[in-house]
Amino acid sequence: LAQLFRPLDMLGMVYRMIRQGLIDMEAMFRLIDTPPEIRDADDAGPLIVTGGAVTFENVVFGYEPDRTILNGVSFAVGAGETLAIVGPSGAGKSTIARLLFRFYDPQGGRVTIDGQDIKAVTQKSLRAEIGIVPQDTVLFNDSIGYNIAYGRADASAEEIAAAAEGAAIDGFIALLPQGYETEVGERGLKLSGGEKQRVAIARTLLKNPPILILDEATSALDSRTEAAIQATLDRIAERRTTLVIAHRLSTVVNADRIIVLEKGRVAETGTHEQLLAMRGLYADMWARQQAEKEEGTV
Ligand code: ATP
Fold it and tell me: Which of 94, 107, 265 has most ligand 1 atoms within 8 Å of CB, for mutation?
C-alpha cells in the first residue's frame, strides 16, 4: 500500500509547490529532475568551485516575453561573503535565486560561479553546490530523520544527528515519542513554521554546500523564534557564499553588501551604513520599518 501512496504523495506535493510559487525548489528538482526548457549544453562539464564567487552580469530576464522583471542586473559576491537582496514586493528578489539555481535561463547577460557561466556546466553539478533554505519547507509523510536526510540517502545516523544539532532542532526531536523515527507531515506530527525551517536548515547542513540561498520567511514567526533561527542562519552562513533574500531589513544589517532592487535594476548598493548615508531608497525603507516597529505593527 505504501508503494501505491508514495507517488500520490509526490504528485500532491508537486501540485502544492507549484501553487505556492515553487518555494521548495530543491525538493521540486529532485522530484521532476529538471524543468523542461533547461538543458545541459552538449559539451557541459561539471562546475568546479574554488571559492564560490557569484556574479550576475547585466542579467535581463522575464517570465513572459512582454514583461521584463530584471532589466540589466549586475552584482558580484565574493567567495564566502554575504549579499542581502532587498526591495519592494515583486521587485524580483526570488527571481534572482531561481536564476542562480538555473530554474530559468536569462534572456540576456550571464550568471557565473567562480568565473564559469552556469549555462555551460551540468545542472546536476551546479545544484550540488547550492543549498537553499526556502521560505516554507514541504515535508514528506515520513519520519523526521528521513526528512532531514532527504537528498542524502547515504547519511549515517550520526551525520543526521549532527545536522539536527547544527540546526538546533535536536532538543525538540529528543522529546518526540519516537525520536528521529517520529512520523511528520500531513499524516503525522504537524511541525510549526519555525520547526519546519529548522528541518530545512538541517537538510542544508547535511548537504554542506559552498553556496547558500536563504529565502527569509515572510510568514510571521514569533520574535524569539525568529531571533533564534536568525542566529542559526548566521552561523551556517559563515565561510559560505550566501545570498539572503531579505524581507525584513533588520536581518541584513550585518551583510557584507546589500543590493536594493527597484524596477528591474540595482538601484543602490553598499553596506547598511553606506546605504543609510545615501539617504535614498534604502534609508527610506529603513526609516519606515523602524517607525512601524515602534508603533508595534511589525
Ligand atoms: P516578494 O518580496 O513579494 O517575495 P520578490 O521581489 O521576491 O517579491 P519575485 O518573486 O522575484 O519577487 O517576482 C518578481 C515578479 O515576477 C513579480 O511581479 C511576479 O508576479 C513575477 N513572477 C514570479 N514568478 C513568476 C512566474 N512563475 N511566472 C510569471 N511571473 C512570475
Answer: 94
Given a cut of 80, is residue 224 above it in pLDDT?
no
Confidence of residue 21 (pLDDT cuts 50, 70, 90): very low
pLDDT tens per residue across span 137-193: 888 889 999 999 987 889 999 999 999 999 999 999 999 989 999 999 888 899 988
ipTM of this complex: 0.97
Query: CB of 128 within 8 A of CB of 180?
Result: no
Q: Is the CB of 63 under 6 A from ligand 1?
A: yes
- The residue behind cell 545541459 is 40
Atom 18, ligand 1: residue with shortest CA distance: 90
The string of pLDDT tens digits covering residues 233-291 is: 888 888 899 999 987 777 788 899 999 999 999 999 999 999 999 999 999 999 988 88
Decide: 135 in ligand 1 pocket, CB within 6 A: no
Global confidence as pTM: 0.84
Contact 119, 110 (CB under 8 A): yes
